[in-house]
Amino acid sequence: MGKNIVQKILDAHLLDGELIPGQEIAIRIDQTLTQDATGTMSYLQFEAMGVPRVKTELSVSYVDHNTLQSGFENADDHRFLQTVAAKHGIYFSRPGNGICHQVHLERFGVPGKTMLGSDSHTPTGGGIGMIAIGAGGLDVAVAMGGGPFYLTCPKVVGVNLTGQLSPMVSAKDVILEVLRRLSVKGGVGKVIEYKGPGVATLSVPERATITNMGAELGATTSIFPSDEVTKAFLKAQNRESAWVELVADSDATYEEEITIDLSALEPMVACPHSPDAVKTVTEVGPIKVDQVLIGSCTNSSYSDLMKVAGILKGKTVHPTVSLGIAPGSKQVFEMLARNGALADLIASGARILESACGPCIGMGQSPNSGAVSVRTFNRNFEGRSGTADAKIYLSSPEIAAAAAITGVLTDPRELGDAIEVAMPEQFLIDDSMVLAPAEEGADVEVLRGPNIKALPINEALADTLQAPVLLKVGDNITTDHIMPAGSKILPLRSNIPAISQYVFSGVDASFADRAKEAGRGIIVGGQNYGQGSSREHAALAPMYLGVKAVITQSFARIHRANLINFGILPLTFVNESDLDKISQGDELEIVDVTTKLGQEEALEIRNVTTGETFSVRPDLTARQIAIIKAGGLLNYTRLNA
Amino acid sequence: MGKNIVQKILDAHLLDGELIPGQEIAIRIDQTLTQDATGTMSYLQFEAMGVPRVKTELSVSYVDHNTLQSGFENADDHRFLQTVAAKHGIYFSRPGNGICHQVHLERFGVPGKTMLGSDSHTPTGGGIGMIAIGAGGLDVAVAMGGGPFYLTCPKVVGVNLTGQLSPMVSAKDVILEVLRRLSVKGGVGKVIEYKGPGVATLSVPERATITNMGAELGATTSIFPSDEVTKAFLKAQNRESAWVELVADSDATYEEEITIDLSALEPMVACPHSPDAVKTVTEVGPIKVDQVLIGSCTNSSYSDLMKVAGILKGKTVHPTVSLGIAPGSKQVFEMLARNGALADLIASGARILESACGPCIGMGQSPNSGAVSVRTFNRNFEGRSGTADAKIYLSSPEIAAAAAITGVLTDPRELGDAIEVAMPEQFLIDDSMVLAPAEEGADVEVLRGPNIKALPINEALADTLQAPVLLKVGDNITTDHIMPAGSKILPLRSNIPAISQYVFSGVDASFADRAKEAGRGIIVGGQNYGQGSSREHAALAPMYLGVKAVITQSFARIHRANLINFGILPLTFVNESDLDKISQGDELEIVDVTTKLGQEEALEIRNVTTGETFSVRPDLTARQIAIIKAGGLLNYTRLNA
């Protein structure tokens, strides 16, 4: 039976399990990438593993998130990342070199390879035919150490592209159409594979825009074939030798299929506050726009910004609009500076921002109160812009540029002649801002600032788990409840002892102190515990505070995986009503837990305080049990290295 | 008797008093400028004055400080500034158009005119032959309303420039030499007037670098003649008609004179942590450099950045140095983008920052812990970079660029061929980012965000002042003690009710609540009360809390002026030891204060709590008494409008 692209790549990298959707598989990872906001922790974890040099084909450490540097912490993190990369065989992309996904596509992505990245938009690499997956920092650290990546084998959704985009309709409109049809939950447990005659009409950066924002579908990743267009892109990047052809077999099958006629698409926006709240520009109408921002890993390629420059040339930004533009990479930035397009952008009144993620991750450029902000970004969650009541619309660069001129949401086709940008036959190649690792890592001193603390390591699971209930919470607790973010707490991401002081700080300010005093503890919760952001600090910081188990009615998927990674037992009530048998402060006890894990489907817990007993289910695979017993994935990996 | 330039301009603008150093004079102000960090309060004050249109020849509102926008407050302020400018006849320079002093020099500065600016580096305008003085926002508001500016008639220091700068020695080295000789207190009560044959060898931007950093001398301002060089600059800016010749009479005299041989200067730096800690680069030696920042109102002109581009062209920033460059204006930015220099800067690995003040005012780019940072800026106070233990060196662009390449402090003459940059015969003129005010101000709605509150207005002085001592403090209390700054409090600068909650918060956290409860109060202090930053919030916020008088052993000059401006009585003990007769919480009383002010040299205060009495001196001029009686300068100006 023929294979689709996803099956071909997974098959070639399969280390364990079978390619049956829903089953756990393990794959070999060829490349990794990190960015600085998640990277510091990932490299601290890598260091803790004790592996001298990365075992991947290529690992790259990027700096693109914390570039505003409103305190010493960011620059210290950059310096740590630079030296730890040099020591352990990792390439380092310096601040100013651009956004990880854009740079990686230009200079490092290879069709047919697997990549794990500690950033949710890692699927950008699918535009060049990679299986590129976002994951937690510890998973990336393990991959750098040569360990397999475990995932649930995904279903493959075939998206059949027909026709061709009309002028001023763009790749962003394609992914917005997919989001409109599938919704932000439509991709869960799936990989989106693009195919059909429309594929050849899309450039690699256009394909990357589409796979990038597949993250907003909740998909494991998205992927395009590697074809002549891919070959031409790689040739223009002086990397033709990296090309391999990669297309689905003619008799390949898909678990689901949909068809999109590119010719039928028109300019669209995602309305506040969800990437799948998609409407055509015409449907929304000419609402007044206060801010326009162009850039991000979704839409900051050479051709994106050349289109914007073409639209803005000779015009002036509307008096009541603030227009910010952040080029996606040094390559893009320098090419625009060499060919006059950057001068046209500056002339129009655009505010040129550093080549970095910037406002897409809420780092600066918060709009005014109640503003309408049109952005070429990928997320428009409420408050993410830094302005609680702002209304964010996600759009193509063409729509954004049109709105910047007119001051209202505008169909770019109304501006007159369409702007066409040809892909360059040759990109400007200069990798001087990517530093190769040291030949002799042992000679390199890793520089740490006072805010970068050693990674705390969990202890192996004890035979008998006895601990007090430190906190009892209700349903739908998010990782933001467990480990808050924000400008005060984010700079502490490399400092678990400091950040752990804020665990549950919004729920119960005394939690951290109480946990420290108790020395060990258990958290009890209701349904859907740990939903929301994938931040691993929501497991790591409680681990540091001595949390040994979390007992709930149900868990959110990623947080449960993070709990296991850090050696915290995730347990669910056999009878949900047993939640009522526990009060905050009760002492709970599980005897012979190490023995019973894997042998018995349920564990008995005794409430020492009340004398009552009840049953909980661990629901762990053999591998997960071994991880828990070792005290987490790091210890497990070291034991099995 | 012949006149120097300062005497000529002051004479032509004198409204009151005599030009005798040390005496109070009043002058007419032709132009004003504001920046956004001080501007919002200045325009709130202007609004409170009830004057519909500014009465100056030209008033410009710039946005260059709060451009990172880490919350809604900044963009709201920008919108307020834009609309209030349109309403009241003020030109508005949009965010992205550049740093106020650089843009004003390029597009608005006129030789022989007076200018008041709510920024301490307003003396930049002296480079084009203006008397340009920094002042508090209220003084600028009064000037916009047509009121005179009162100042102590300064001494004039003649700085005789001879010879010519050697290649790779620059204007920055001239002002560093002046700082080395005179110190940061050497300019107090003085204007620095440059003269002599060396003047003609310096371009207008070079002269502006020198007058700009005259602020660090503590000088009232600095000024250069307006000559053929000035004429050529204005012609290249399409503003030749603004030129007038302005030179000192041949028999002009000066209170002090010094001579600097430009030919003898060599590359210098100001060492941590003071702008007058000046040494030659050779003396300091090749210390390791972690960060280089180029820009600011001191050194971000076209020729400054062309020199930097010339040095960096074809080279790569040293692997352990982070180089940031912020062009001074849109004009500079676009010219560099058009002629390829910007591409050379990007190619070298420079991080291109928005055209704004940026890291010079601690807005981003904080270096790593313990870093050595070489900056073309004007201040290197400890902690100002955002990194408490960083060591900041102030230098010319040439030295900064050399250090960026070599990674150590480097004499730029060692790099090989000198870079020479000719002044352009024609600058690129495009004023599209400067918005003219509305023809009909009445039609303009001023947009205010939730953080912009109406200005609180003081009440007229009561006949009998009876109030409790809210706080008793010691010597050398700074305006940072009175009204702290920092990232938490700065965004509240447009919101006096909110920011007043932080008055004395570091000294006594209960102060604000206690003051509000009492309704009115008095502060008692020791020597040198109110030293440091000129921030008017240190008077305005206590006024809002009901502070009616401050009684001390002595005051710092600017803070005392601010207290008067906001209608707070500044009183000093006749017998300093009477400080001991007052305890916090005592009730003090001055009877018939409105009558006695101006009639009696000393006022008697009765300590109602202890029954004791003691004498204090107001030391106020008749005008100041009228201001105090009116409840502050705003009320006084309205009464006399």
Automatic annotation (TrEMBL), chains A, B:
One Pfam family of this protein, by short name? Aconitase_C
Cofactor (UniProt): [4Fe-4S] cluster
The domain of life is Bacteria
- Keywords (A to Z) from UniProt: Iron, Iron-sulfur, Lyase, Metal-binding
State a GO cellular component annotated for this protein.
cytosol
Give EC number(s), comma-separated.
4.2.1.3
- Which GO molecular-function terms appear in the entry? 4 iron, 4 sulfur cluster binding; aconitate hydratase activity; metal ion binding
Aconitase/3-isopropylmalate dehydratase large subunit alpha/beta/alpha domain ranges (all copies) = 7-283, 284-407
What's a GO biological-process term for it? tricarboxylic acid cycle
- Record domain Aconitase A/isopropylmalate dehydratase small subunit swivel: where: 515-575
UniProt KW Cell membrane keyword: no
EC main class here is lyase
Question: Subunit arrangement?
Answer: Monomer.
Tell me the protein's name: Aconitate hydratase
